[in-house]
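RECORD TYPE: inverse folding
INPUT: structure tokens
STRUCTURE:
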């Protein structure tokens, strides 16, 4: 009888021990699971933060590149303006696409002035007549007693050669238009010969 009670008590104690272990295991598992979930969320947050940082750095780099491009564009515009200024002032020899106009006979000074003005109005960047470059430093055009034209103390006589650097198609269209400067000169001087030529390279010193 005592033996049966001993076995029963032992069984009860074993059962309580097993139940206690199961509960402890579940609690530990729950803690570990929560830690794992917390670690996972922590890792996700770290990755998100790093991704945001990389995105910000990328945006900063793109903005820096845009600013650099704007600066380069500004420098290019300034350089183009300097080149254009040098062409207009005659400080340096220039060359580029353009046109030449040859006139074989004498014309009055006022027609020469009109041709020059027409060329500049057509956005010519540089103009010369018989090798004399027209710049703001020129003293103007004068007619001397024999009917020839004087530019800044230098006399020019036919044949006249006008050179102009600029957009070739624009210059040709302006000069060759019906009723334009060249056609008016031809109407005043019926025997005159005028030649208008497009040039890939025009040199003006």
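DESIGNED SEQUENCE:
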């Amino acid at each position: 009888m005592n033996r049966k009670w001993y076995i029963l008590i032992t069984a009860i104690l074993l059962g309580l021990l097993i139940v206690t272990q199961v509960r402890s295991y579940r609690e530990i598992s729950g803690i570990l699971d929560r830690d794992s979930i917390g670690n996972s969320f922590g890792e996700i947050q770290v990755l998100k933060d790093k991704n945001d940082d990389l995105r910000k750095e990328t945006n900063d780099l793109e903005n820096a590149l845009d600013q650099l491009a704007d600066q380069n564009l500004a420098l290019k515009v300034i350089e183009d303006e300097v080149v254009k200024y040098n062409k207009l002032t005659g400080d340096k020899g220039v060359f580029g696409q353009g046109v030449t106009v040859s006139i074989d006979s004498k014309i009055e000074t006022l027609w020469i002035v009109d041709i020059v003005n027409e060329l500049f109005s057509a956005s010519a960047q540089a103009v010369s007549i018989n090798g004399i470059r027209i710049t703001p430093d020129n003293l103007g055009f004068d007619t001397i007693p024999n009917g020839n034209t004087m530019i800044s103390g230098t006399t020019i006589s036919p044949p006249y050669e006008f050179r102009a650097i600029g957009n070739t198609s624009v210059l040709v269209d302006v000069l060759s238009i019906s009723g334009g400067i060249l056609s008016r000169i031809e109407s005043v001087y019926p025997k005159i010969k005028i030649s208008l030529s497009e040039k890939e390279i025009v040199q003006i010193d």
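NOTES: The chain has four helices and eight strands.
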